[in-house]
Amino acid sequence: MELIYTGDWQGVARLMLASADKLAAIGADLLICPDNTIHQALGFVQPKSPLPWIHIAEAVAEDAVRRGFRRVGLTGTRWLVESEVYPEKLAARGLEFVRPDAGEREEINRIIMDELVYGVFKPESVLSFQQVIGRMQGEGCDAVVLGCTEIPLIIDDGNSPLPVLDSTRLLARAALRKAVGGTAVPK
């Protein structure tokens, strides 16, 4: 996290490349990273990587298009939602997006970093996410990206005001499709 706190994305890339080299050495064919935030370093990683990567935001954008969504809300750490990780991939597929406002970003980040990563699940945190997603719905969003591995611990299709795009699950399905040669993967 120190590299992320200081914005050292090339340092993050070095860690990712070290992992990529190890995985290539033991026979991996492709690489994924379920951490949305560190996809900010993928631009430094891909040109030097021994193996191809599946980009989490591309998997989400692909599913959003397949499901007919046109404007999605972004949730995740403040580093992610302030970055271009999702906007670039969504725009490439003709999708619009809405980011949480500054106060919402800080509260979402606090919930993720101070509660969810420690296994703390508070009803008021669920309510906070629901309010942000509801505001996004009011701004014309027809789905919301759960752009953090931990968010689905408290938000899903059952309690979200909008249909969810669970980035971790969508990345896993994309990896399975790629691994089995493009055949359908059960939902």
Structure characterization notes:
The structure is a single chain. α7 packs antiparallel against α8 (123-138). The chain has 187 residues and is an alpha/beta fold. It starts with a helix and ends in an 8-residue tail after the last helix. The longest helix is centred in the N-terminal third of the chain and has 17 residues, at 9-25. The chain has nine helices and four strands, in the order ααααβααβααββα. It folds into two domains: 2-55, no CATH class; 56-170, Rossmann fold, CATH 3.40.50. It has a four-stranded parallel β-sheet, sandwiched between helices. It has helices at 2-5, 9-25, 42-45, 56-66, 78-81, 85-92, 102-115, 123-138, 167-179, and strands at residues 71-75, 96-98, 143-146, 164-166.
The biggest beta sheet is recorded as: 4 strands, parallel
**Overall spatial form:** globular
Model regions low in confidence, pLDDT < 50 over at least 5 residues: none
Helix/strand structural class: alpha/beta
CATH class of the largest domain: Alpha Beta
* Spatial extent as radius of gyration: 16 Å
The CATH architecture of the largest domain is 3-Layer(aba) Sandwich
- What is the H/E order? HHHHEHHEHHEEH
Spatial strand sequence of the major β-sheet: 2-1-3-4
